[in-house]
């Protein structure tokens, strides 16, 4: 099973998580790592396992990620690939992930972003297995890293956070072992 780690990152937090997923996923699958930009053109359906992630910006993914998703929805709908009631395609799985920090109040505020990405994958017929959110340092805003509701988030995601990413990725791969083989 081919896997794709597709992400956007503004300050490097989400990229750290994406790389930890990729480094772990390469053990069990043929894996690709791709940071999207305005020129990204990839066929999502070429992959059986998609990890898609973004930092949270105003409760949603980055503009670059949203433009990519909207473009893919338009493209696939035009090709008749988006079906009424979004039937599941066997062997297609996804995980949505993201990072949040700074002025955020916690995971609940970040969940709309992963739910937005989840809806994208489910419209394509993917079964979304999980949504992962990780605290990330808010760059160049020291006061927002130490005084908020989330406690001290300086230098996050840290080694412990990335070990959690690795463990969760290993768990996903183990649960899909029959599909991967």
- CATH level-1 class: Alpha Beta
Q: In angstroms, what is the radius of gyration?
A: 16 Å
- CATH topology name, in short, is Rossmann fold
Shape: globular
* Domain unit count: 1
CATH architecture label name: 3-Layer(aba) Sandwich
Helix/strand class: alpha/beta
Oligomer state equals single chain
> Total number of β-strand segments?
5
Q: Estimate the strand proportion.
A: 15-25%
Query: In percent, how helical is the residue content?
Result: 40-55%
Number of helices: 6
Uncertain regions spanning at least 5 consecutive residues: none
- The end-to-end distance, rounded to whole angstroms, is 8 Å
Summarize the biggest pleated sheet: 5 strands, parallel
How would you write the strand order of the largest sheet?
A: 2-1-3-4-5
Average pLDDT value?
89
Helix-strand sequence? EHEEHEHEHHH
The CATH superfamily title: Flavodoxin domain
General description of the model:
The chain has 181 residues and is of the alpha/beta class. It has one domain: Rossmann fold, CATH 3.40.50.360. 41% of the residues lie in helices and 20% in strands. The protein is built from six helices and five strands. A five-stranded parallel beta sheet has the order 2-1-3-4-5, sandwiched between helices. Helix 1 runs parallel beside helix 5. The longest helix has 17 residues. The protein starts with a strand and ends with a helix. The mean pLDDT is 89.
Give the topology:
Elements: E1 2-7, H1 13-28, E2 30-35, E3 49-55, H2 63-78, E4 93-100, H3 107-123, E5 127-135, H4 142-146, H5 159-175, H6 177-180
Helix pairs in contact: 1-5
């Amino acid at each position: 099973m081919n896997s794709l780690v597709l992400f956007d990152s503004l300050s490097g937090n989400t990229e750290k998580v994406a790389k930890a997923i990729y480094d772990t996923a390469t053990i069990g699958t043929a894996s690709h790592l791709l940071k999207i930009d305005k020129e990204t053109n990839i066929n999502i359906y070429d992959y059986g396992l998609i990890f898609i992630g973004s930092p949270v910006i105003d409760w949603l993914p980055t503009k670059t990620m949203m433009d990519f998703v909207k473009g893919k929805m338009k493209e696939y709908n035009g090709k008749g690939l988006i079906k009424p009631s979004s039937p599941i395609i066997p062997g297609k799985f996804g995980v949505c992930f993201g990072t949040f920090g700074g002025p955020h109040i916690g995971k609940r505020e970040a969940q709309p972003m992963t739910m937005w990405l989840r809806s994208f994958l489910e419209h394509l017929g993917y079964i979304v297995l999980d949504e992962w959110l990780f605290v990330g340092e808010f760059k160049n805003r020291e006061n927002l890293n130490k005084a908020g509701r989330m406690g001290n988030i300086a230098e996050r995601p840290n080694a412990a956070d990335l070990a959690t990413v690795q463990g969760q990725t290993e768990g996903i791969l183990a649960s899909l072992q029959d599909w991967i083989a």
